Amino acid sequence: QVQLVESGGGLVQAGGSLRLSCAASRSLFGINSMGWYRQAPGKQRELVATAAVGGVTNYADSVKGRFTISRDNAKNTVFLQMNSLKPEDTAVYYCNAKGYNYQRFDYWGQGTQVAVSS
Q: Which end of the chain, C or N, has fewer beta carbons within 10 A?
């Protein structure tokens, strides 16, 4: 079983920055997409950003221009640079990896808390 291990969450003031990291516990072949999702209290989990094969990225409208996703394919690692953070960015952020290796896989990390104070 592959584990995705996130790090980098914490408490920051509005306007500040954080960098999230997520690494797979072992080599993971066949990844099509790695990304970040978040879930705020009382809300559904939502997409933040994804990075697919070939460098194609996708962002939620609410984070465009403030967040940047990047991948280190050789290390099965994905990063999320978050700038100009707002209180509404407060949530648990989850790492995700989707792909196919003899069968489809869809792995999730345990989540890392991001709290932005006003």
A: N
Query: In the chain, what are the helix, strand and coil shares in percent, each to the nearest 5?
Result: 10, 55, 35
Q: Residues near 64 by Cβ (< 8 Å), separated by ≥ 6?
A: none
Cα–Cα distance for residue pair 48/68, rounded to 1 Å: 10
Instruction: Tell me how crowded residue 62 is: count the other CB atoms within 10 A of its CB.
Output: 12
pLDDT per residue over 62-96, tens digit each? 999 999 999 988 888 999 999 999 999 999 999 99
**Exposed/middle/buried for residue 109 (C-beta within 10 Å: 0-12, 13-18, 19+):** buried
CA distance 59 to 49: 4
